[in-house]
Amino acid sequence: MTMKQLQTHTVAKATGMYSRHSEAAMLNLNNGDILMIWQRFENSPFGSNDYSPSTLVSSVSRDKGYTWEEPRVLVTPEPGDTNVYSPNLIRLKDGRILFLYMRYVHLAAGKPRVTAAGIRISEDEGKTFSPVRYVWERGSYSFSNSCARRLSSDRILIPAGLSDGVGRKENFIQQSLFSDDDGETWMFGSGCMRADKRGCMEPFVGELSDGRLLAVMRTQLGAVYKSYSFDDGNTWTTPVSSGLEAPESCPYLVNIPGSDQLLVIWNHAPYDPGFASHFGKRSPLTAAVTRDGDCFKLLGNLEEDPNRAFTNPAVLFLPDGECLVTYWTSPYNEKWRFRGPIDLKLARFYLE
Length: 352
Known about the structure:
Layout: E1 3-12, E2 18-28, E3 34-42, E4 54-61, E5 72-75, E6 83-91, E7 97-106, E8 114-122, E9 133-139, E10 149-150, E11 156-163, E12 172-179, E13 187-188, E14 201-207, E15 213-218, E16 223-229, E17 240-245, E18 252-255, E19 262-267, E20 285-290, E21 296-303, E22 308-317, E23 323-331, E24 343-351
Antiparallel strand pairs: 1-24, 2-3, 3-4, 4-5, 6-7, 7-8, 8-9, 10-11, 11-12, 12-13, 14-15, 15-16, 16-17, 18-19, 19-20, 20-21, 22-23, 23-24
């Protein structure tokens, strides 16, 4: 398999009013349009970091993702919240659209996280959404954008993380949150994924041809780590290195439609514990494919500017097979930290 016709362009550029556009989810609509929901952060004393106030905004593309309509606000924080986060979109069996997202009731450096997970349903292809109902209203779990998966069993699965510490003692443990009745009720799996240092972060799941699930995840251990499930995500094997060297950054995994291969997007960069942030540069942003999580074939880089970070990818395959990848990008400053602003970009290519 090879990557062909690679193009990149900006979806939403940071401005004086909005310092960051990031963490998107996309869905194919029945008329051929594309729905995208992403995090839009307001300019604030926090700059473009994770503690800034944000809303979730939506936009529609009518030309396969080349241009996007003016975004509209879908979700705002509740009074007292820090911000809103992690949009997910999934098509229900009856054709409706499930929109899952997270509220950070409280998010601050060195403090325990407090979250809420909300669901809204659209019956008109994303034009309107129902009032929110909550999976939980006050908890400590968190999940990533665009991580919801429908398995071949029809189970909807979302990897959800829980930290058993704060600050430098933070260590993330991952479980499966799943629904077997198309999003009506939810429960957690009995098994956990654990690792050293900051633990297992931001996992994404794909389904192998033999029925196993494969999860890849961010760690501080020098590589993308992997874990397998033999029971539809209820339990997981002990995470180990996938062999893909990486800094501390978010990888992405998704099944390729009509294929027994899975696409992996990650920062294929040296692990450097002495680097100023996240154990190494978040550049380049690289694509590979795998059938089993053991062997990977490199396809090439989507972005490779060494002076910028490219991270938090999300993938949508169009009906004609074209692959769209969103991600955010920010320049590094002279101390090799993100200085902002943060733009939302999109790469597109075909796999042949």
